[in-house]
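User: My collaborator and I are trying to settle a disagreement about how two of our proteins should look. Neither of us wants to argue from intuition anymore, so we agreed to look at predicted structures for both before our next call. Could you fold the first one, then the second, and keep them clearly separated?

Assistant: That sounds like a sensible way to settle it. I'll keep them separate. The first protein:
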Amino acid sequence: PFEWLLRYVLADDAFYYFTIARNAAQGFGLTFDRIAETNGFHPLWLFILLPIQSLMQDKIVAIHAILSLSAIIDTLTIYLLWVLLREQNVRQNIRLVVCSFYAFPTILFSHAGPLSGLETALNLMVISFYLILYFRILKSDLFQLREAMIFGIVSSLLFLARTDNIVLLGATYIHIGVHYRNQSGPSRYLFASGSTALILVVPWLIWSYVNFGSLVQVSGQSVAFVTRANLDAQGWSAMDFLLQTVRNLASIVRFFPFYLDNTSTMSFIPLLIAIALGGFALSTIRLLRSREAKQAVVMSQYYTSLMPLLVVIVAFVAIHTFRGVYLRGWYYTSLLPFLFLLGGVTTELFVTSTQPKHKLALRRISIVALLPALVVYGESMRRVYTKAIGEIDKYQMVLSMNRVLPEKTTVGSWNAGVYGYFFDRGNVVNLDGLVNNVAYDHIKNRSLGDYCRRVGVTHLVDPVGSFRYWQSYWAKEPTDLLRQGDVIYETPRENLDRKVVLLHLHSR
């Protein structure tokens, strides 16, 4: 049911995609508010949504169609993960366990999962397919032009699915180049592959730069700019950012292989997972040095091809930390194919390298290990049965806006996704810059108030906490935004910061 989706699954940012795709399908261009164009989206997912939003007039039915497509895509990812593990010589029972963890994760019931309405499912599928091609190239005796061109096309799709996948592209292309460094033919084909990828993404990059003066989407700049500005004002040093990088790396255990939402009350569980994974890694390192490991199928010449993925994980988290400090849940989801692959191959190595006399003990340990795994899984499932708020307050508010506001009203909001998609009596202008390049410029100049007056914003809607967070960017002088107008509607909420209010700005 749609209300359940709002509470547990749909992210507000997903409604940016839905609205931009709907506006584009109706001939308004790539715009959220029908006022100005934006590049605040990952292009591949948006263009896939265009025919759905074009064919389906009912907005909620369109969302169900989009999530159904996401489910189909994510189911295909399970198969690709199976193929990926099989081609790394991981035995069938281990593949079954790994793919089961992927197929039934509690992250499905969260904003970070592949059913959030964001590009997540598509990104996971493309990453998995890309990794299959990557390992096939490393394993082939001769890197041919045909394989290079296909690899280049998939590389372009990987970049267009999420532009931060450039970290994966850089690491893998460098590794392939080093692998074939003594062969002139494959080196030329690798160049052809990269050139093909570049040719296919250049139109997007040129459009973005010509229209907005940047190759990077505004969605990757605005909130990161504000977060860093606030932390710099608090006196954060390079050491603070380094420590935050470590914290963000440690947070990976929340998503692999389970999704732990409330880690403050269950902090011992991610700690246990981290200890278990660390012990498993140390055991694997010990096995790599043993005589038995040299006889393992997985310890072939291709095992080293997994090392760049470790570099990708660390680099991905570090770059996002220094860019935006706090990683969003769906950023971690991008790492799942690497983590499941590394987990499957490491398990295969561990099992294969165990001496015959230890096989029975290993089987017993595996059975015992399932018990705490089931406990953690049960705990992570608890959020499904706990009534969440999610985006339900915003949806109830926008239904009220459609009743009480006059036609052609222009409303401003910092979290504008749900409002923009369902508001039928005018426009909703995004003010945090995620899908508004002009608003981002005014955020940097601390002149959002001037921008709102220029585009005719007469109302503001958001939780009270957002008004307080963003009011320092309204004008160069300190401004209490809640005193700049009259509250004409609000949602009932005991927590004042989470109460959503509709503010009618004073005309002056």
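The second protein, kept apart from the first:
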Amino acid sequence: MRTDRKKRIWTGVLWLLILTLFAVQVPASVHARETRTVRAAFFPMKGFHEYSEEDGYSGMDVAYLDELSIYTGWSIEYVECGSWDEALSMLEKHEVDLVGSAQYSEERAQIFDYAKLSSGYTFGCLFVEEGSSIAFEDFDQMKDKRFGVVGSYIQKKAFLDYLGRNGISSPSLQEYKTAQELQEALSAGQTDIAVHSLTEVQEGQHLVGKFAYEPFYYITWKGNHSLLDELNMGIEQLKTNSPALEGELMSLYYGGRRENFAVRELQFIRQNKKIKIGFYKDTPPLAYINRQGKYDGIYLEILRAVSERSGISIEFCPLDRTEYWKELLARGEIDFYVGASNAKPAKNKDIKLTSSFMPYNTVIVSKKEYTLSDRKARMVLTKGRTYLADSIAIKGDVVYCDSAKDCLKALENEEADITLLNTIEYNYYSKNERFSNLIEWENYRYQTGTVLAASQNVDSAMFHVMNKALHFVTDSEKEAVINQYMNLPLQTQIDTALTQTCAQT
């Protein structure tokens, strides 16, 4: 289930470029060049390199190389290595051509050639097993703990400097030969806190410190000039055409790594202050009031699970379309609004967004017989989604409706030509045969994600508590919630008779 979700999200990432530029123009030189087979080292690293009989090679590095190969024309051959150190040894012997995720060091640059541009970023982490009571950056609590680190870890000095700046000048340090040995020691309780890059943190482990934000690069053996030239050209073009790709992949493969709450955040939770979260009550299956008067929907079920696991107390606040969530945040009537998209322009200085807690695709929908001409179309959107009109190259008049269902009715009644909707909403409503004359444009969809929106002056501890707690529900659990609601029969009437402003979960 998780693999399928990743594939769908990755498909959405690829279509982002199509929406903004309509087509990627691959240089003619790529087509003319003879295909080069590049041997890429494939070493055990959850999220970065994964293999299964069903799906073959996958992970962040594989996804990046798939995209890079569009520009280089390469055919990638993965060569399995037992560890990162073995991958470097094989590269030095010319047994592989390419190794990814290498941070820069002068010593390493004497042995290998680095790509001119980075292909991602990472940072150093202090991490613990699930259930550890160590709070995030609680250095007083860490003073007597045992720190485990790989002896060859390139950021070991930065880690020691980080501890030194925070009052731990002589840490109890245990060194291991490989990341696998480090993980085994942490799991067995032989060390209390492990130290390594984010890409070595496994699912279920929690961060208690972060340091040394650094880019990483592809490296090749010294003197491999022709491959290095193609690598540099390809990364440059990839960054130009898909500047958000690195961040998207990091979020996709490592966004679920959780931070423990800091001391101040734990104090906020213990105060048991109700956090008011607003939602529009006419957006099934995402958030709505069902016939029994219960606050229901995918967003709300996920947030209920967040509340239960984190100890945060949440109140849901149903909103009418006459109420603008942004104004309610500004007046302090709600603390967060659920339903905002991370596609909302970052230049909006009044709004602060959490990280995405539910990725999805946005898709263009029209009548089957509609044909786009001159990139102009009458567009209908739900209120509050003005930013979507600016996200695509299609221009034209825009009208607004209260709900996704009303947008689809507008297409049926030929009051508009196209609409942009969350695919979950569209799939839910398309079960109704009244909309059987509508189609989604498979070639015009892009990946975005649902976030919580807050005012810029939101209480800092409250914001960070919610932002961290959103990661307490796994991707597979969210997928199960989505599937549950997508299989429900279409609700034709939503009971809006309730008059209360807020209700406790």
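Some points you might bring to the call about the second protein. The longest helix spans residues 2-21. Residues 145 and 192 are 6 Å apart (CA to CA).
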